[in-house]
Amino acid sequence: MDDIHRFRDDSVGYCIEDLSVGMSAVYARTVTETDIVLFSGVSGDSNPVHMNELYARGTIFKTRIVHGMLTASFLSTVIGSKLPGPGSIYLSQNLRFRAPVRAGDTVEARITVTEIIPEKNRVALKTVCRVGDKVVIEGDALVMVPGR
Amino acid sequence: MDDIHRFRDDSVGYCIEDLSVGMSAVYARTVTETDIVLFSGVSGDSNPVHMNELYARGTIFKTRIVHGMLTASFLSTVIGSKLPGPGSIYLSQNLRFRAPVRAGDTVEARITVTEIIPEKNRVALKTVCRVGDKVVIEGDALVMVPGR
Amino acid sequence: MDDIHRFRDDSVGYCIEDLSVGMSAVYARTVTETDIVLFSGVSGDSNPVHMNELYARGTIFKTRIVHGMLTASFLSTVIGSKLPGPGSIYLSQNLRFRAPVRAGDTVEARITVTEIIPEKNRVALKTVCRVGDKVVIEGDALVMVPGR
Amino acid sequence: MDDIHRFRDDSVGYCIEDLSVGMSAVYARTVTETDIVLFSGVSGDSNPVHMNELYARGTIFKTRIVHGMLTASFLSTVIGSKLPGPGSIYLSQNLRFRAPVRAGDTVEARITVTEIIPEKNRVALKTVCRVGDKVVIEGDALVMVPGR
After folding, report:
1. What pTM was estimated for this model as a whole?
2. CA distances from A74 to A15, A93, B111 (A)
3. Where would I find the beta strands (DSSP E) of chain B?
4. Is residue A112 classed as helix, strand or coil in its secondary structure?
5. How many CB pairs under 8 A join A and C?
6. Which of B63, C140, D45, D87 is within CB 3.0–4.6 Å of C77 for a Cys-Cys bond?
């Protein structure tokens, strides 16, 4: 079973029958200045708190901060790539932004299964991003997962 | 009001006293294949539904789709850049993903003020992304806005 | 065992004791024009066969082709991320370029374990990239893998 | 010979008759954090040794390292752009990874002609990447070159 699992095609995610409450998966990444610039380019968000160091020094953040939606995207990465993974359909995501992230911070995005609704092929997920011990984003997601 | 808006310093957002229910702002953008590739790079999400055309053809989407969080980031762009704009602090965002977006689609992200809570310096926003008439993402956001 | 495996931290690759001849892993991706442009930027290779459509039309390839080293990098992606994965050290890679890849092609990069040399903590791998049934790159790699 | 080389049309490479053993060409480049992020995007390799500083600190490398195939791509840049240059066809490349490269390092990729096989229109090349005096990659390549 273990070997079969090892060769599980990573373009195939979990089926609803494979999921159980408490399952968890993580994506961790150091966010660089490059990521801020590229995200600004694709999102169009060139708000000075992200792009203008002189402006950002005058804010409560004291330096440029990472776009909240870039940090939030790491949650989507775990959901789409790992848990439940490819084949699942993202229905909703709630995000509460708790603390800023700065270039150089390493963000850990963690997804945990909190509820399975088999009659609707849905799974509820707790979604948390941390830098060290500090929660920077928390929220919940709802995903549709195929049955076998 | 419109003219004042047009010529405001775009590094200074609205104060709570300047906002009223029904005010609205938009960011619209054609999402390209390049945006998908770059967003995959910064988010780490190389889920085959975004990156592998042969895989995507076998899904209900029939072709590669845009990352939902990339589309959602356009909402954040309006909030951080236009309404309420720089100086506001993003507290929360709820997203409901209603329909897929594909390379070549032009997304309109619209923010509308729905409630002002002056004693807490907060404003509630309706947040909607459309492709043509079709709603692709809808939700709500809560933002803290400085007073004068 | 299966559940433990499912939550195997994907920042931890296989140990030499976990590997056996015939194990295999894949990364598949549609190569876009964007990938060609970005790879040209990071590699410095702006050879006209990749970047100049008018020039490329006059070559045996008839259109711009993907940089061979970009296609080859997908092999490295499988080795570094999946098999043997993080913690392994890439010692060598031989590449034979068999056929061109063009923008829009979906490349499948497959790694297969061909030999295990436990006394040296090394594993030999067959490394093949295909577009459909056609082999575009083939070769071998040697990787050092930690013991338990 | 040097002057001729300097003013050659850079979309026209050497013909087999123009090459002689010992000819050499170089591409040198400082590899930045941006290059690592962009290469991760186009290759799909977001292995934590490249992308997660906290993880990388716990490895023998002590910090994030550059993808080996990004460094190797500089060899391809010399071959495709300078020696033999445009019009040549890359047949094979052997790579031995000798030492890590880190963001901020300046890599010199050097190609030297080691053998000419005129009856097959092929040329053998020694391919070496250095950071300062340290060899980081070495290997050999075989290239097909047009005749006059």
Report:
1. 0.91
2. 22, 12, 24
3. 24-30, 89-97, 106-117, 122-131, 134-144
4. strand
5. 25
6. D45
Transcribe B36-75 into DSSP letters: HHHHHHHH----HHHH-HHHHHTSTTSS----HHHHHHHH
Query: In chain C, what residues touch D73 (CB-CB under 8 Å)?
Result: 39, 42-43, 45, 67, 69-70, 73
B-chain residue closest to A56, CA distance: B87
Write the ipTM: 0.92
The tokens of A40 are what? 């600004």
User: Could you tell me the strand order of the sheet in which A122-131 lies?
Assistant: A24-30, A106-117, A122-131, A134-144, A89-97, B89-97, B134-144, B122-131, B106-117, B24-30
How does pLDDT run across A24-66, given as a tens digit for each residue? Answer: 999 999 999 999 999 999 999 999 999 999 999 999 999 999 9
Question: CB D97 to CB C76 under 8 A?
Answer: no
Give the gap in angstroms from C-alpha B94 to the nearest C-alpha of chain D: 28
**Which residues between 39 and 98 in chain B have a beta carbon less than 8 angstroms from any beta carbon of chain A?**
39, 41-50, 52, 55, 59, 67-70, 72-74, 76-77, 80-81, 85-87, 89-97
Chain C touching partners, 3 or more CB pairs below 8 A: A, B, D
